[in-house]
Specification:
Blueprint lengths: L8 H14 L5 H14 L4 H14 L3 H16 L12 H8 L7 H5 L4 H16 L3 H17 L3 H15 L5 H14 L7
Helix pairs in contact: 1-2, 1-3, 3-4, 4-7, 7-8, 8-9, 8-10, 9-10
């Protein structure tokens, strides 16, 4: 198919998918990314291209692939593409980063994209999904507050974090610890991804 049409979106995305699934080498993501880029830029069958791309990244979860998923979501948003149904599965990256169950940390996420872009993408991708569950929505609001602080809205972000902290009450856990740490950080007038 590529010999006939080098920009064939199906052939490119399938080859990128295959590379991530079966090559697993240190350059697999870079190789797959090149095919995904051609497929996305073809401007044809974009929904299918993104579905296969996100599936490939999700089926081979590791540090780089999970961060790449967030970058892909950001690109989809900036290109005004529709959210794929599989978009919500990328939420696990944020969830596990907060809960210390992955190699990705909250700091990794805070420095992945410029804060204002990341904030827009987070809201675009996950607002509806997060609002379905109180616990998930608190985590979502935590990330929104962290990103808002990084865009310069420190006082407003701290107010949002105080509301979350009050809602958590005496609950222990990583979200409470993360909220407390962020409040301490922002109270000092210092904003950094740590």
């Amino acid at each position: 198919a590529l010999a006939v049409d080098a920009a064939n979106p199906f052939a490119n995305v399938m080859l990128g998918h295959w590379i991530l699934a079966y090559e697993n080498g240190p350059n697999a993501l870079d190789s797959a990314r090149a095919y995904f880029r051609v497929a996305a830029d073809a401007g044809r069958a974009t929904d299918e291209v993104r579905r296969f791309q996100l599936a490939a990244l999700g089926n081979a979860p590791d540090f780089n692939n999970e961060l790449e998923t967030i970058r892909v979501l950001n690109e989809m948003r900036t290109r005004a593409e529709p959210r794929a149904p599989s978009t919500r599965t990328a939420w696990r990256t944020y969830y596990y980063a907060l809960n210390g169950q992955a190699s990705i940390t909250v700091s990794d996420l805070m420095t992945l994209l410029p804060a204002s872009e990341h904030l827009q993408t987070l809201r675009w991708a996950f607002t509806e999904y997060a609002q379905r569950d109180e616990g998930t929505y608190r985590i979502f609001r935590f990330y929104v507050a962290r990103l808002r602080a990084q865009t310069g809205e420190v006082d407003s972000a701290a107010d949002s974090l105080r509301v979350i902290r009050k809602e958590l009450g005496d609950d222990s856990g990583r979200l409470r610890d993360a909220v407390d740490a962020a409040l301490t950080q922002y109270g000092s007038g210092r904003v950094s991804p740590d």
